[in-house]
Design a protein that fits this description.
By secondary structure, the chain is of the alpha/beta class. The chain folds into 4 domains: about 200 residues, DhaL domain (Serine Threonine Protein Phosphatase 5, Tetratricopeptide repeat, Alpha Horseshoe); about 80 residues, YebC, transcriptional regulation domain (Alpha-Beta Plaits, 2-Layer Sandwich), CATH 3.30.70; about 120 residues, Rossmann fold (3-Layer(aba) Sandwich); about 100 residues, Hypothetical Protein Tm841, Chain: A,domain 3, CATH 3.30.1180. Helices cover about 50% and strands about 15% of the residues. The strands form 4 sheets. It has a 6-stranded mixed β-sheet with strand order 13-12-9-16-14-15, sandwiched between helices. Strands 2-3-1-4 form a 4-stranded antiparallel β-sheet. The protein has a 4-stranded parallel β-sheet with strand order 6-5-7-8, sandwiched between helices. It is globular, with a radius of gyration of 24 Å. It starts with 7 loop residues before the first helix and ends with a strand.
Length: about 550
C-alpha cells in the first residue's frame, strides 16, 4: 500500500490513533521508570498531553493540514504534563512550523516536519541528554528523510523511522548507564514509538475512532476554593471559547477583553486563539470576540452556583488579598496544602508524584491569583519544564523557583517578601533552598537493581535529594537510616510530614524514636496526607 499525500483529516485521525495506542500501553511505559517507585508517570503524562492534542485536532479535522497541525500543537502545548509531555509538545510545535502553510503533505514534508520537531525539542531542553526521547526522535526523523528521498511513500517513510527508532531504543541503556543498571529502556522513547505506531496505523486504516471513552479517564482532581472567597466573587461567570480567524493578535484581543473581567488567558496563534476569562457579562465577552473572527467551543459556567452546589465540601481557608507578588505551588495532600497556604501560597495546584499538572493547570492557577507577578514553586523535578512553558505563555510576569520537593518550598517561603522586586524575591528563595536537605520514603513496585542496591518489590525505599540512600522492610527504620545519611546530628531542625498510609499512632511512635536518638534536635511532625510517600522529611 502506498500513500502519496495526507490531509488535515488524515492527520487528526492519526493523532487520535496514536493517542489511543499509547493509552493501551501506558502502564508499560510507566513501569519503565528508572526508580522502581510508584511515581513512574511518563506514560500517563505523554498520554494526557496527546489526549489534549488529539482533542484539538479532532475539533479542526475538516480544516487544512496546516491548520490541523497548528491545532494539535496548541492542544499539546496547553495540555503538556511532565518533562516527557513538554518534549512531545515541542515536537508537535516543530512539526507545525513545517506543515502550517500546507493543504496537504507528502513523504518528505512529513519527514522534514519530524526533523523540525526534533530540533525544536532539543532547543527546549537546557541540557539535552543522549539515550532519551531526544535521541529517539532525532534518529526517527533521519531515517524517515532517507526513505522519503528514495520514494514518495508516507507510510514507508514513517515505518522506516519507527524501525530505526526501535533499534535506537534498544541501545539507550548503552548510552545511559542508569538505564542499563535498572534493566529498562528509555520510557519517553518507548512512549513516542507507541504513539507513532498508532499514528501510522491511523494513516493506513480509516478507522472510526472516538476519544469520548477516554475523556476524563485521568482527570486531575479539582481543588475546592475557599467558600467565603468564592461567595464574594467580583466576576461570576467563567467563560471559555475559541476564536478562529486570520491575523489574530493575542495582545489586541486581551486589550479589548480586559475591561470585562479578570483571570484572563488568551493563547494561540494568528488563526486560532483560546480565551478564558471571568466576567459578569459573558454576552459582552462573546460579542467582543466576534469582532475578531468566528467563535466556537463556548463554555459558560456560573461559578457562584457551583459554589452552592459544592457547599458541603468546602474547608474554610484564608482569603486572597491583593498583593504585589503572588505564589503558586504544586503539591498533593491535605496537610501539605494547608501548610503551604498558611505560609503565604495563594494557589495550590493539585499534583506532584504520579500526577503532574499541565501547562494549562498552572496558567489557570496563576490567573486566579490577584497579582500581576507570580512566583511558581513546581516542587517536583518533572514539573519544572512545564512551569517554564507556562512562564512563556502567561500574560503575567512569572518567576520559576525550581523547587524539587515541598520540603524545599517550605524553606524557600521563609525568604518570600512581596515588597521586593520579583527577580530579587525569586533569587532569595532559590538561595534558601540550599539550606535544606530533603528525604522521601516510598515503596518499590518491582524488583530492581540500581546503583548497587538490590531492591525487591514491596521494600521501603529512602531517597535523599532524589537519590536512593536506604532500603528496608519498615518505613520507620528507613526514616531513621535516612536521618543518619542526612547527618541529622549536625543540624538543628528535623521536619517530617507523614502521608496517607501511616496511622497517626505510627507517626507519633516514630517521632518518639527520633527524639530518643536525637535529643538535642528540634523535631516537628505534621500530617501531610500525601499519597504513595509514607514520609517526607528535611533537615536544616
Amino acid at each position: 500500500m502506498s500513500l502519496d499525500s495526507i490531509t488535515g483529516n488524515d492527520l487528526a485521525r492519526s493523532v487520535k490513533a496514536g493517542c489511543i495506542r499509547l493509552e493501551h500501553n501506558r502502564d508499560h511505559v510507566d513501569l519503565l521508570n528508572v526508580f522502581p517507585v510508584p511515581d513512574g508517570d511518563t506514560g500517563t503524562n505523554m498520554y494526557l498531553t496527546l489526549l489534549a492534542a488529539a482533542k484539538e485536532g479532532e475539533k479542526n479535522s475538516q480544516q487544512s493540514l496546516g491548520k490541523v497541525a497548528k491545532a494539535v500543537s496548541l492542544g499539546s502545548l496547553m495540555g503538556a504534563r511532565g518533562n516527557s509531555g513538554v518534549i512531545m509538545s515541542q515536537i508537535f510545535r516543530g512539526m507545525a512550523k513545517v506543515l502550517e502553510s500546507k493543504a496537504e503533505a507528502n513523504a518528505m514534508d512529513m519527514a522534514q516536519s519530524l526533523r523540525a520537531g526534533s530540533e525544536t525539542a532539543y532547543k527546549a531542553v537546557m541540557k539535552p541528554v543522549e539515550g532519551t526521547i531526544l535521541t529517539v526522535i532525532r534518529e526517527i526523523a533521519a531515517a524517515s528523510e532517507r526513505e522519503a528521498n528514495a520514494g514518495n511513500d508516507i507510510l514507508g517513510s514513517l515505518l522506516a523511522g519507527v524501525d530505526e527508532g526501535l533499534r535506537v531504543l534498544e541501545k539507550t541503556p548503552t548510552m545511559l548507564p542508569i538505564l542499563k543498571e535498572a534493566g529498562v529502556v528509555d520510557a519517553g522513547g518507548r512512549g513516542l514509538l507507541y504513539f507513532l505506531e498508532g499514528f501510522i496505523d491511523g494513516l493506513a486504516h480509516e478507522k472510526d475512532m472516538t476519544l469520548e471513552e477516554y475523556k476524563g479517564k485521568f482527570a486531575v482532581p479539582h481543588i475546592e476554593k475557599d467558600q467565603q472567597s468564592l461567595l464574594e466573587l467580583d466576576f461570576q461567570y467563567c467563560t471559555e471559547l475559541l476564536i478562529k480567524g486570520n491575523g489574530l493578535e493575542e495582545g489586541d484581543v486581551k486589550d479589548h477583553l480586559a475591561p470585562l473581567g479578570d483571570s484572563m488567558l488568551v493563547v494561540g496563534d494568528e488563526s486560532l486563539l483560546k480565551v478564558h476569562i471571568h466576567s459578569n457579562h459573558p454576552g459582552k465577552v462573546l460579542e467582543t470576540c466576534l469582532q475578531f473572527g468566528s467563535i466556537t467551543d463556548v463554555k459558560i459556567n456560573n461559578m457562584l452556583e457551583e459554589v452552592h452546589e459544592q457547599h458541603h465540601k468546602w474547608d474554610v481557608e484564608k482569603p486572597m488579598p491583593q498583593r504585589r507578588i503572588g505564589v503558586v505551588a504544586v503539591a498533593t495532600g491535605d496537610g501539605i496544602r494547608k501548610m503551604l497556604l498558611s505560609l503565604g501560597v495563594d494557589e495550590v495546584v493539585e499534583g506532584g508524584q504520579t500526577m503532574n499538572p499541565s501547562t494549562e493547570d498552572l496558567l489557570r492557577a496563576c490567573n486566579q491569583v490577584e497579582a500581576d507577578q507570580i512566583i511558581v514553586l513546581p516542587n517536583n523535578s518533572n514539573v519544572i519544564m512545564t512551569a517554564e512553558q507556562a512562564k512563556h505563555l502567561s500574560n503575567k510576569n512569572l518567576a520559576i523557583v525550581p523547587t524539587k520537593s515541598v520540603m524545599q518550598a517550605i524553606n524557600a517561603l521563609i525568604a518570600f517578601n512581596d515588597e521586593e522586586d520579583l527577580e530579587k524575591v525569586a533569587e532569595a528563595m532559590y538561595q534558601e533552598i540550599a539550606n535544606v536537605s530533603y528525604g522521601e520514603v516510598t515503596y518499590a513496585v518491582r524488583d530492581s537493581s540500581f546503583n548497587g542496591w538490590e531492591i525487591k518489590e514491596g521494600d521501603y525505599i529512602g531517597l535523599v535529594n532524589d537519590e536512593i540512600a536506604a532500603q528496608g522492610t519498615s518505613a520507620e527504620d528507613v526514616v531513621l537510616d535516612l536521618l543518619d545519611v542526612m547527618k541529622a546530628e549536625e543540624n538543628e531542625l528535623l521536619t517530617i510530614f507523614y502521608g496517607s498510609d501511616p496511622e497517626e499512632n505510627d507517626a507519633l511512635r516514630l517521632k518518639g524514636r527520633i527524639m530518643g536518638k536525637y535529643p538535642d534536635n528540634e523535631i516537628e511532625m505534621h500530617y501531610g496526607g500525601q499519597p504513595h510517600y509514607s514520609y517526607l522529611l528535611s533537615v536544616e
